[in-house]
Amino acid sequence: MRILGIDPGLRTTGFGVLDAEGPRLRYVASGVIQTGSAAQGNLPARLKLLFDGITELQARYTPDVAAVEIVFVNVNPQATLLLGQARGACLTALVAADLPVAEYTALQMKQAVAGHGKAAKTQVQAMVQRLLGLPAAPRPDAADALGLAITHAHAGPAVARLHAAGAERTTSSMYRRR
């Protein structure tokens, strides 16, 4: 199963791609989509850059599923709204490509990758490097995206079985365009 992890952000969106076969994980790619200076102050242009970037990643890596971080409520309501719009652009691109989408909180990802939900970014980076056998730690946004993919590799099969059995509430949400 090929998993595309997405850590949404308006300025920087992290992505990570890995292949999971049972307990084995194989790193494929990771990086970031930047919307900074090219579209500074132009929200619709930034959202289009995100949509196009996610669409390109989906076409290049042909994942079987995407794992996307759920937005947290920030102390700054404006920042939360902007992050929600960036996340919406990412989700729209994934669903438009008929890609199933699983959602996980940052807490769930940190628990799955580092063993506790309050892990620092550096701890997540180090554990992702170790779990995937990378020569260096990935950038923070890419590490979070890879962490989401790792989380889905471990939790995804159980979540899919729960959905197939008709469970109403699970640890993640799955979307698929009908």
Q: Indicate the structural class.
A: alpha/beta
Task: Work out the radius of gyration.
Answer: 15 Å
Biggest beta sheet summary: 6 strands, mixed
Number of domains: 1
Secondary-structure element series = EEEHEHEHHHE
Number of helical segments with 4 or more residues: 5
Distance between the termini: 21 Å
User: Uncertain spans, ≥5 residues at pLDDT below 50?
Assistant: 168-172
Average pLDDT across residues? 88
Number of DSSP strand runs: 6
Q: CATH topology, anyone?
A: Nucleotidyltransferase, domain 5
In CATH, the architecture is 2-Layer Sandwich
Strand order in space, largest sheet = 3-2-1-4-5-6
CATH superfamily: Ribonuclease H-like superfamily/Ribonuclease H
Overall helicity: 40-55%
Name of the CATH first level: Alpha Beta
Query: Strand portion, in percent?
Result: 15-25%
From the spread of the alpha carbons, the general shape counts as globular
Summary, kept brief:
The protein is α/β, with parallel strands linked by helices and 178 residues long. It is 48% helix and 21% strand. The chain contains five helices and six strands.
How would you characterize this protein structure?
It contains five helices and six strands; from the N terminus they run E-E-E-H-E-H-E-H-H-H-E. It has helices at 43-61, 77-96, 106-114, 121-132, 140-164, and strands spanning 2-7, 12-21, 24-34, 65-69, 101-104, 174-175. The two termini are 21 Å apart. It has one domain: Ribonuclease H-like superfamily/Ribonuclease H (Nucleotidyltransferase, domain 5, 2-Layer Sandwich). The chain is an alpha/beta fold and 178 residues long.
